[in-house]
Batch of 2 targets.
Target 1
Amino acid sequence: MARIVCKYSLFIIWLVLILQYSLSTCAHSKKLYENKPCKRFVLYYHDILFNGTNIANATSAATTNYTSLGNFKHGMLVVFDDPMTKDNHLLSTPVARAQGFYFYDMKTTYNAWFSYTLIFNSTEHKGTLNIMGADMMSEETRDLSVVGGTGDFFMARGIATFRTDVAQDDYYFRLEMDIKLLNENKPCKRFTLYYHDILFNGTNVANATSATAVNRTKLGDFKLGMLVVFDDPMTIDNHLLSPPVARAQGFYFYDMKTTYNAWFSYTLIFNSTEHKGTINIMGADMMDEETRDLSVVGGTGDFFMTRGIATFRTDTFQGADYFRVQMDIKLYECY
Ligand SMILES: *[C@@H]1O[C@H](CO)[C@@H](O)[C@H](O)[C@H]1NC(C)=O
Ligand SMILES: *[C@@H]1O[C@H](CO)[C@@H](O)[C@H](O)[C@H]1NC(C)=O
Ligand SMILES: *[C@@H]1O[C@H](CO)[C@@H](O)[C@H](O)[C@H]1NC(C)=O
Ligand SMILES: *[C@@H]1O[C@H](CO)[C@@H](O)[C@H](O)[C@H]1NC(C)=O
Ligand SMILES: *[C@@H]1O[C@H](CO)[C@@H](O)[C@H](O)[C@H]1NC(C)=O
Ligand SMILES: *[C@@H]1O[C@H](CO)[C@@H](O)[C@H](O)[C@H]1NC(C)=O
Ligand SMILES: *[C@@H]1O[C@H](CO)[C@@H](O)[C@H](O)[C@H]1NC(C)=O
Ligand SMILES: *[C@@H]1O[C@H](CO)[C@@H](O)[C@H](O)[C@H]1NC(C)=O
């Protein structure tokens, strides 16, 4: 008897373990998105000012002398082509160049204003980052704006935090630049959801999730002018009956006389323990194309101020009453 009970309880433990395992893998596969950190790296900027004798080493030169306003070089403009290194050694191999200018702009203390480009031209990175802003040198750290980029840093935006690493006499200073890109060319959040639209046809009241609010016009044979208002379920997989993780509320209308083309404007509404907030999406759905990109123009709550792209792909089309669209949502700005 004891043996049987023992066998039985072993079976229960095994069952519990299996159940736990399948629950955890299930929870994992149901994860809505991966929150990837945006790009961050530290580089050192070395500025050797030309003083009339250091031609071999100088990397920058004053193009205007300072004015006599105050004692802090007010008005002095320096043009530079400086090496950027990964550590704080001047003679380390540069990983980029910094080209641009700064000038001193305060009469009561040292303060500079920078505008420059980091130029990457290695096997690791090709492209540029454009940075501008005030360098309030008396602060321990100062934040400047990364306002744009090209190549590997296409359309980058972010912050470059300056910290003075060393200031040797008048001719050499070194800045640590901690560069944080908030929108790399990879999305900071990405997830795929399925949109299910069941059009009301007069009899399917129980199941319909959308209805024609304005009938088509007679211009062409592709429903031009037909306006549909929807409150559709969004699911993680392509099963209509899976529990929705969000609702899509908004409208589309057909707008082309020679083929099916629609124009969407809608909100994804998240109201679960996992996510609260909204994502607003708008754009043209050129239904003949395999995939179509619409714009994510804003968000609230967990998706505060987001922007990005929603890529549509028609997953299925069943007569006039049901269609399903895969929406691959890539957010490039996350806060
Ligand atoms: C110019 O700077 C170099 C270091 O870059 C220094 O060795 C030299 O003494 C400086 N010359 C003058 C005239 O200040
Ligand atoms: C200046 O350059 C020369 C050779 O180009 C080098 O020997 C010297 O160490 C450099 N000085 C500084 C301060 O970097
Ligand atoms: C720059 O200006 C200062 C004072 O206004 C003067 O002493 C110095 O000689 C000037 N330097 C040059 C290179 O013109
Ligand atoms: C980048 O590097 C390549 C190979 O070293 C060189 O041919 C090219 O001129 C460089 N481009 C720039 C913009 O520095
Ligand atoms: C309405 O749509 C439902 C499916 O949602 C379908 O079963 C039914 O036949 C349709 N009725 C008409 C009149 O088209
Ligand atoms: C419509 O809803 C009923 C019950 O609400 C369900 O049994 C049926 O499968 C649904 N039809 C479709 C096409 O989803
Ligand atoms: C919508 O318009 C079409 C063509 O103009 C017409 O055949 C149809 O009956 C209209 N439907 C409704 C519900 O008014
Ligand atoms: C969100 O869910 C909560 C709890 O289920 C509910 O009380 C609330 O009304 C919902 N809000 C919206 C906007 O759907």
Target 2
Amino acid sequence: MKKHKPVMKEVQVVSEWICNKCGKSVQADSNDFETDLIHSFQTEFGYGSGFDMEEWSWELCEDCLVDIVRTFQFAPDGFGGEYRTESSESQQQRFEE
Ligand SMILES: [Zn+2]
């Protein structure tokens, strides 16, 4: 059996997102789905990497994300939204447009 009691805890919440590439800032309390236009990423490096054991995380606004993805030779998986059922060749063709 457990008994519970109310306690006051200080918690950290995101108040602002800042694009690591261009510096665009979005307040967490903004409306109009603006926070949906900031994307969070993280990666970990293992043995053999020059960044062995480092863990990186960063945010990108949608404009900067698209700029980076447009430098890819191949379309990312899932590219195309409502066209998810199309072939990868067709996705790639639209990606290159
Ligand atoms: Zn940006």
